[in-house]
Amino acid sequence: MEPGNTPLVELHNLAPPETRLFAKLEWYNPTGSIKDRPAWSMFFDAKKNGLLPDGKPIIEATSGNTGIGLARVAGINDHKAVICLPSRASKERKQLLKAYGAELIEVEGGPNDAIARAKELVADGEGHMLYQYGNPANPLAHEFGTTVEIARDWPLETPPDHLVAAYGTGGTLTGSSRGMRREYRDIMVHSVEELMADPIGGMRSQDDPFQPPVADLSLVNHRWEFTNAQAVEKVREIMKLEGHFVGTSSGAVIEGAQEVLSRFGGSAVALLPDAGWKYLSGSPWADGL
Predict the structure, then answer these.
(1) What residue spans define the domains of the chain?
(2) Is the pTM of this model over 0.85?
(3) Active-site option among 63, 90, 191, 249
(4) What is the CATH number of domain 8-28+136-287?
(5) Residue 230 and residue 255 in contact, taking contact as beta carbons nearer than 8 Å
(6) Considering 24, 33, 35, 234, which one is annotated as catalytic?
(7) pLDDT in tens, 129-158
(8) What is the rounded CA–CA span in Å between residue 130 and residue 60?
């Protein structure tokens, strides 16, 4: 099953007055996140270009979701997936990786440390690294997938005024920005980022010394920074008002979309990376909502 064709729904109870807020629910992808799209795209691009001969292991650094997507597509195509991820990744993501047959290598620190470890394995000849942070097939999955679906399903007579997306690898933000600008020339692009003093899992800041090569931040009109605490509170609000249990990055994206609509008005599309069930074992969910 190829990823894609996820629902675009209106969030009536979260939109500021006299605005319209729509969300692309990416947890409807096969392993439950938006990262299924680039995982599929990068794998088959590598196969097509002869970079991944039959049986050669895949090596990837991830905070979890891309690794899960790669473990799935690798497994059904008879490749081993070796996934380097921060040890702080949630228990559920580690369990899913193992369930899909991946070999886990946990590293202390954050995503940048996982990247360094994966590059060491490649240097030792352990396999081929798809390198989501610099692989053009990552944003292409959104430019010619995610945004084509949004344009197809957009329900209003007038075009969307804003695109709101999280900044992580840069693939979603870059690819969806290019695609939406092609469909809607005047759309404003908003990057939702973590505040580095209070990081949000799977997200990144433009203040980070490492900026993924795949990211084209010249496409961004405005950046919005939020703390993990703000994202968690927004997750609770989304559950109460709309009934969707989203991940913390999705909570931050909705917080950003509300700020955007409050300031500029109009209509917005928010890309929600995943649901909250992969994080239930961690704080603050471990002790209940």
Answers:
(1) 8-28+136-287, 36-129
(2) yes
(3) 249
(4) 3.40.50.1100
(5) yes
(6) 35
(7) 999 999 999 999 999 999 999 999 999 999
(8) 6
